[in-house]
Specification:
This protein is of the alpha/beta class. It folds into 2 domains: about 30-115, Leucine Dehydrogenase, chain A, domain 1 (Rossmann fold, 3-Layer(aba) Sandwich), CATH 3.40.50; about 140-265, NAD(P)-binding Rossmann-like Domain (Rossmann fold, 3-Layer(aba) Sandwich). The protein is about 45% helix and about 15% strand. The protein contains 10 helices and 11 strands. It has helices spanning about 10-30, 45-60, 75-85, 105-110, 125-130, 140-150, 170-180, 195-200, 245-250, 260-285; strands spanning about 5, 35-40, 65-70, 95, 160-165, 185-190, 205, 225-230, 230-235, 240, 255. The strands form 3 sheets. It has a 6-stranded parallel beta sheet. It has a 3-stranded parallel beta sheet with strand order 3-2-4, sandwiched between helices. A two-stranded antiparallel sheet has the order 9-10. Strand 9 (about 230-235) and strand 10 form a beta hairpin. Helix 1 (about 10-30) runs parallel beside helix 10. The N and C termini lie far apart (about 60 Å). The mean pLDDT is about 95.
Length: about 290
């Protein structure tokens, strides 16, 4: 029997509808959530991501602004803009699209964002809070994965979860979030020896390596849930994940497609984080 397809696009639409109701109620009390996205340079993939975020804001009636800055923008100029946005009461969420040009220190830029407005959850303060289980904001992609699992009634507690990929954006926070849900977690990556032996143990496998067709049918056990975060463009232009989808779905009990799986959920979680930051900042202003 073929795997259940975990439709992230449909689920993201449901979450956006829930958020629309919340946003309408917030606006009645004078809170209008606002997100600012900063894009430096002209990376084509980054432009697509930024456009998707802008469209989602328009659809949700979230106030949004995109600052498109040239490749030659200096680190100082970018820091000055972030400082200005940190102080702006109408800006509730700040997102700097990565990667940045090589002459700009990504770490310094991420640390300059007010942690209360860090809707990506990349700031060291927010990462630290996540690691000890007190995070108020959750990184968008892992949070989207959790929603996919929970809303499809997939049990996490007590299960063996393998995360393939150790990035700060997906792999590491995903592992921490699984631990919070009482899973047993193994983090593997592209340098892991005998990767197939590790992935075969998984009850839930999250793959975020960025290598097309990495996860083969013989690397998983029957009934596994596969969450594919990989976004790989083949020479024919087709977008695929890390898993060999057609063959893996014959063994898995459930699998996310690429596209239409994790991607739409990441954007939905960004919208959710923007609404959360707006509510919290409003409460802080009331208590000042």
């Amino acid at each position: 029997m073929s795997a259940k397809i975990l439709d992230g696009k449909k689920l993201a639409s449901e979450i956006k509808e829930e958020l629309k109701i919340e946003i309408a109620q917030l606006k009645k009390t004078g809170i209008a959530p606002g997100l600012v996205v900063i894009l430096v340079g002209d990376d084509p993939a980054s432009k697509i991501y930024v456009d998707n975020k802008k469209k989602a804001c328009e659809e949700m009636e979230i106030n949004s602004q995109v600052f498109e800055m040239p490749e030659c923008t200096t680190e100082e100029e970018l820091l000055k803009l972030i400082q200005k946005l940190n102080a702006d009461e109408k800006t509730h969420g700040i997102l700097v699209q990565l990667p940045l040009p090589k002459h700009i220190d990504e770490g310094k830029i991420i640390e300059s964002i007010d942690p209360k407005k860090d809707v990506d959850c990349f700031h060291p303060e927010n990462v630290g809070k996540l690691s000890i289980g007190i995070g108020k904001l959750l990184p968008c992609t892992p949070a989207g994965i959790m929603e996919i699992l929970k809303r499809n009634n997939i049990e996490i507690s007590g299960r063996e979860c393998v995360v393939a990929g150790k990035s700060n954006i997906v792999g590491k926070p995903m592992a921490m979030m699984f631990l919070e849900e009482n899973a047993t977690v193994i983090v593997a990556h592209i340098k892991t020896e005998n990767l197939g032996e590790i992935t075969k143990r998984a009850d839930i496998l999250v793959t975020a390596v960025g290598k097309a067709g990495l996860i083969k049918k013989d690397m998983i056990k029957k009934g596994v849930v596969v969450v594919d975060v990989g976004m790989n463009r083949l020479s024919n232009g087709k977008l695929v994940g890390d898993a060999d989808f057609e063959n893996v779905k014959e063994i898995a009990s459930a699998i996310t497609p690429v596209p239409g799986g994790v991607g739409p959920m990441t954007v939905a979680m960004l919208m959710k984080n923007t609404v959360e930051t707006a509510k919290r900042l409003y409460k802080n202003n009331l208590n000042d």
